[in-house]
């Protein structure tokens, strides 16, 4: 069975309409819903930024939310689902600028730890957000609004479970 991956949901993100979206060359395998920092612009391609893995306390994070294009969906039923999509190292992917008041969701696979409603998610040492009982200032911080399950209810003969999203409002970045 294929590995379930993180998925992003852009509920109310201003960069979708008026902010910046970036082309970022990955340095490691990535999934939608992961966060990175922008690296330098490539010398031979000024439209592509490098990627920097965030550290705890970082701000200026960019959300990876690449269109999920799955070329081989004939191998088995359900293989065409976004929850099995990932990006290989070296690919150029789409990143969204995230700002205060943006609302987004990522599945549990994109969080390192257990997100709790009413608490916070902050930058950790890696591409996944980590839970925090208290907000942080001068760094990326989002408040967990709720968890919501999507999909999986119409499976008749297949073992399918719904994707559980952690919906959050960005407080600072």
Strands, count = 11
Give the strand line-up of the largest sheet: 1-7-11-10-8-9
Alpha carbon gap, first and last residue: 37 Å
Pattern of helices and strands: EEEEEEEEEEE
Beta-strand portion reads: 35-45%
Q: How much helical structure, as a percent, in the residues? A: under 10%
Largest sheet report: 6 strands, antiparallel
Question: Can you offer a commentary on this structure?
Answer:
Helix content is 0%, strand content 39%. The chain has 173 residues and is mainly β. It is globular and about 45 Å long. The protein starts with 7 loop residues before the first strand and ends with a strand. The mean pLDDT is 88.
Which tags fit this structure?
mainly beta; 0% helix; 39% strand; 6-stranded antiparallel sheet; 173 residues; 5-stranded mixed β-barrel
Short recap of the structure:
By secondary structure, the protein is mainly beta. It is built from no helices and 11 strands. Helix content is 0%, strand content 39%.
Summarize the helices and strands and which ones pair or pack.
Layout: E1 8-12, E2 21-25, E3 35-42, E4 45-52, E5 62-64, E6 92-97, E7 103-107, E8 120-123, E9 129-132, E10 141-150, E11 163-172
Parallel strand pairs: 2-4
Antiparallel strand pairs: 1-7, 2-6, 3-4, 3-5, 5-6, 7-11, 8-9, 8-10, 10-11
């Amino acid at each position: 069975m294929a590995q379930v991956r993180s998925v992003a949901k852009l509920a109310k993100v201003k960069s979708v309409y008026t902010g910046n979206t970036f082309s970022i060359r990955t340095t490691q395998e990535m999934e939608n819903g992961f966060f990175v920092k922008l690296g330098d612009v490539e010398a031979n391609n000024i439209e592509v930024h490098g990627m920097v893995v965030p550290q705890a306390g970082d701000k200026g994070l960019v959300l990876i939310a690449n269109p999920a294009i799955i070329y081989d969906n004939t191998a088995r039923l359900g293989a065409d689902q976004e929850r099995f999509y990932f990006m290989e190292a070296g690919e150029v992917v789409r990143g969204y600028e995230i700002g205060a008041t943006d609302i987004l969701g990522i599945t549990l696979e994109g969080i390192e730890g257990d997100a709790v409603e009413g608490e916070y998610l902050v930058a950790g040492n890696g591409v996944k957000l980590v839970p925090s009982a208290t907000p942080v200032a001068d760094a990326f911080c989002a408040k967990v609004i709720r968890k919501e399950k999507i999909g999986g209810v119409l499976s008749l003969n297949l073992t399918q479970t719904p994707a559980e999203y952690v919906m959050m409002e960005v407080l600072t970045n």
